[in-house]
Design brief:
- The chain has 455 residues and is mainly alpha-helical.
- The protein has one domain: Amino acid/polyamine transporter I (Up-down Bundle).
- The protein is 71% helix and 0% strand.
- Helix 3 packs across helix 9.
- The longest helix is centred in the N-terminal third of the chain and has 41 residues.
Length: 455
Amino acid sequence: MTIDKEETKNSRKPKQPINEKSPLLQEKDEGQLSSGELNGASFTGSVFNLSTSIIGAGIMALPATMKVLGLGLGLGLIVFVALLTEASLEMLLRFSKVGNSESYGEVMGDAFGGVGRRLLQFCIFVNNVGTLIVYMIIIGDVLSGTSASGVHHAGVLEGWFGVHWWNSRAFVLLVTTILVFAPLSCFKRIDSLRYTSALAVALAFIFLVITAGITIIKSLDGNIAIPRLLPNITNITSVWNLFTVVPVLVTAFICHFNVHTINSELKDSSLIRPVVQTSLALCSFVYILTSFFGFLLFGDSTLDDVLANFDTNLGIPYSSLLNDTVRISYALHLMLVFPILFYPLRLNLDGLLFTSARPLVSDNLRFAFISSGLLVLVFLGANFIPNIWDAFQFTGATATVCIGFIFPAAIALRDRHRIATKKDKILSVFMIALAVFSNSVAIYSDAYALFKKSA
């Protein structure tokens, strides 16, 4: 009884995770707590932050995955990947607790030493840079237009004011980076972003509600065709093509790099599993409805970035206004999601480059140098990578699948603390085998398609 009470007391005690391994988490002392500063994060705020880590650019590519898979198989796979993600997060948090690890990097270091920790940090760098580039690409598509599909789709600013130098893609992204991304990326505590995260989730729901409303109205008028429930298989190439959606589905649920940070800031660390489950359920709900209504609305005309479809006459009253509302709301959503993914990117790059330096929170010069360097890198990537599908395929089939499934499974199989059950090991082998096979085929299919296209 004494031990249980002590554990309960400790779980509710505000954590003090500041050390050389967790440089951006600010220490809480008694004076700060008594004055109300740096109080532990709430359950609701943590759900918003974790949900924002999950719902990002992936939602815009999900309707295109329905075009490849068919509605029945596609929606089933969304649920399957959500359940697999919850299982991997549960294992990761369990092994973190037994090893007293405060970060994903520490868990990997505990299992595989310094090499494992650095490999994880490199994968997070690749994944988050790729994802943030996707965010910028979509924002550029929305505001300035895109011709990536071979047909020009006008952006909102181009539609309102015509073509000018000041609404060109590069200039719009530069202004957005300086006025929006840079200020929001300066926070040194992720809980400081809870209000912007709540607004980001609300904006995602606005996109979903408008898309659903348009689809329902057109369905009642008889202007919506019955969607395909299964993929269109004609030859062996179309079979291999099914695997190209795997990186997109994997990327859509990745949030592993922020779970430890959110856990460390919670008032009660025992709430982290309910936070994870609530966030995954909320995001799965949004993903399923977005995929369903998005594919139902545009069918086989669905583009890789479904936002680009919202630039034509939808065949209902106030079509132009609804198009602009949908695109602007989601562009604003991505602007608010950006700092949530930028936070672990900066943290892990600092750990990769400056392993023995003093905490980043106390070194403003290093903090500014890393932040500005990463913003420049993402900005350049968004101006030179043609579309979001290319970026998703590269990051999703490599770094993302390692972060989400291969590394948690490898930690369980390594089982340094002898706590893995038989079920854990079977699930881990299944996750690694599925991830390696499906993503190998996806990489092959993409490489073959690019080769044919260039030929």
